[in-house]
Amino acid sequence: MKLVLPLLLVAQTALAQEDTCPQAPDHSAETDRIIAELRVAPDEATARRISQGLWSAWLEAPDARAQALLDRGMALREQFAFLESRDVLDELVEYCPDYAEGYNQRAFASFLRRDFDSALPDLERALELNPKHVAALSGKALTLMGLGRDEEAQRALRSALDLNPWLSERALLDEPEGEDI
User: Fold this and answer.
1) How far apart are CA 53 and CA 35, in angstroms?
2) Residue partners of 163: CB distance under 8 A and separation at least 6
3) Quick one: average pLDDT of 55-80?
4) What does the DSSP 8-state code read for residue 167?
């Protein structure tokens, strides 16, 4: 009996570790460099190419299990299976509650269903975890527009454009009011 208890504790610890998501890779230096490049990109095509580096960083999940969930959730979303995508992404954010992209992708699945009320908290959580997540910022702007919260949407859009002035959503920016010349 004395030997069984320590073995049970070891087994429980091993099982608990399997259910613990590791820390997401830290790409902050890389994303800061990419954002600096985006701010001085000479044209939209160049900026689009540069911004792929952001997606490469964001889409690197913390481990194989998280990567499989992310990839599956995104594949389902691309097949227009939005509810199924959300279910898989629910599992991802439950497993990896500190991985910003899980929330961003779940928000996107909600957004595509026009479920803006569900998308917004996920975008806000993604931005808590990664304040420079340009896609989450622009997604927040679009979601706020969908909710009719235009002033907040414009602030979010301006924040996104501060990071990447070449976003296609820049066409939605209200021009500041000024005097006619």
Assistant:
1) 10
2) 35, 38, 39, 132, 134, 137
3) 97
4) -
Structural domains in the chain, CATH included, are: 26-168 (1.25.40.10)
Average pLDDT over residues 33-49: 96
Mean confidence (pLDDT) of the chain: 90
Torsion of CA 46, 48, 54, 60, to 10 degrees: -120
Question: What does the alpha-carbon distance between residue 75 and residue 72 come to, in Å, rounded to a whole number?
Answer: 5
Strand, helix or coil at 93? Answer: helix
**Are 114 and 146 within 8 A, CB to CB?**
yes
What is the C-alpha separation between 42 and 104, in angstroms, rounded?
28
**Residue 177 binned pLDDT confidence (cut-offs 50, 70, 90):** low
Burial readout 54-78 (b: 16 or more C-beta within 10 A, e: otherwise): beebbeebbeebbeebbebbbebbe
Distances (CA, A) of 168 to 97, 145, 161: 30, 15, 10
